[in-house]
Sequence to fold (577 residues):
Amino acid sequence: MKKQLGRLILILISSFMIIPFLYMFMTSLRVTYTAYNFKFALDDLTLKNYREIFYNTSFIIYFLNSLFISLSGVVLNVVFSSMAGYAFAKLEFKGREKIFFFMLLTLIIPSQVTLLPLYVIMRHLGWLNTYMALILPLPTAVGVFIMRQSILKIPRDLMDSARIDGCSEFRIFMEIVLPLIRPAIIALSIFTFVGAWNEFLWPLIATTSNSMRTLTVGMASMNAQYTVNYGLVMAGATMTFLPSFIFYILLQRQFEEGVALSGLKG
Amino acid sequence: MQNVEILLIDEKPKKRFCIKRLAGKGKPYGFIGPLSLLLFTFYVIPIFLSIYFSFTDYNIIKKPGFIGLSNYRDLLLDETFKASIKNTFIFTLGVVPAQTIFSLFMASWLVSRGKSRLTEFVKGAMFIPVISSMVLVSIVWRILLNGEGSPLNMILNILNITQPNWLGDSSIVLFVLMGITVWKNTGYFMILYIAGLMEIPKNYTEAARVDGAGRWRVFYHITLPLLKPTTIMVVFLGMVWSLQTFDLIYTLTGGGPGNASMTLVLHIYNNAFKNFNAGYAMTIANILLFFSAMAAIVQKSFLKKEKSEVY
Fold:
């Protein structure tokens, strides 16, 4: 009896988490100008809203922009972070601990503090309204931390024997280290992707031209413009939600490991 | 070992990669170089710029002119700033304990139930708000909360409870936003707690159980102290995130009604990009930086103490 009650409460809590998204999805399948006919009947479902947003060139541009920026951010972050993580974990050099500490220190800087100076820097570089401005600031020190932690676990002998065989440092990194830290790379990739995909404030500021906007920025303005057709807004919202959701479903375990790893930093 | 390595590399030069040549003797610096450059350009330089701008009347368009402490003096007279400080603190003080307790509760409940289809489902469900963007969350919640015929209000209607004006009533709007934030963040912290709970050796709790300690006592005297590092992390992250709340409020209420949900970051944004008072915006930003740094220092000192006690 007690066990049954516990199960019921757990399901209730889960529903509370899911229902808003279910509602979003259900509304997206209806042509509704009221949004307030909350019903789960399946009779008047239609894909019209989806057809409409995919005929909307702006929406497709936003979607592709978000996709390109997020994927580039993933590549940039994984490459740079794993390189730095390798150096911090396995190479000896002057000031190693200090530089690592200072890198981690950048994590406490609220991105909102750097926002306006970043805007000024980007304007001086002439990078506003370019992919450069949207992609280059994506890597953070979290990646180095995750990479360093997992590279530390690789036994030193493995690298030493490669070195004696005459393998260059770069080849050791490419051919020995990278394959061994694949789980961490996947975790960091999903992490970066979801973070970049959901980013809002910086793209809002760094872009003024419609052709450079990302999906979140586009959605926020779409929400203001089309408040009459909730179905359309919800179709857009569903499309915004879907990529992260698919990523999460496919790679749930690595995702959770990534959270645990990045959150447990000292 | 190091000498051998250098000798070997010197004796037979292999084909040279671009990065290797670039790095030369300072190979390690070549590895950390690219990231250091990005972090330096996009985090360190902005901090110094931010401090510099706060002493100027910069407005993005014209050249900044030095005006001393006048921006800081203006803070004291700015009613919106006072409201934003107050709201940010209320927000943080409400959200952090709520999401910490809720996530700890959920994590220990799920772990104690063991792995089953239900617990995996709950874990997944809790995580759905985490992976969705704040913009999306606000769009959906706005529709759920607004209007007489909205789903939530319909349920309240059936239960015969008068529906409050969730986002338009200045006495409750902040609490509604806090609720949504807790709803969104709990899944994330729950995962942290689950990871922390998994690290506790089973024989600790088992030994206590054998000695006759009840479930609650085991939790209070063994589990909770061992989870302290995780808790410090959860509280720290929760504080930093709460201090930085923007997306939700920007899209949901715009700080209103009045200044009832104005926060520090929204005030920064408005001053920088709406009122074109960038120097002043940076002054507020430096206050925010100060609070974040305080949170980090407190966290560090707690962690230090923690290490000497436990390890």
Summary: The mean pLDDT of chain A is 84. The longest helix of chain A spans residues 57-90.
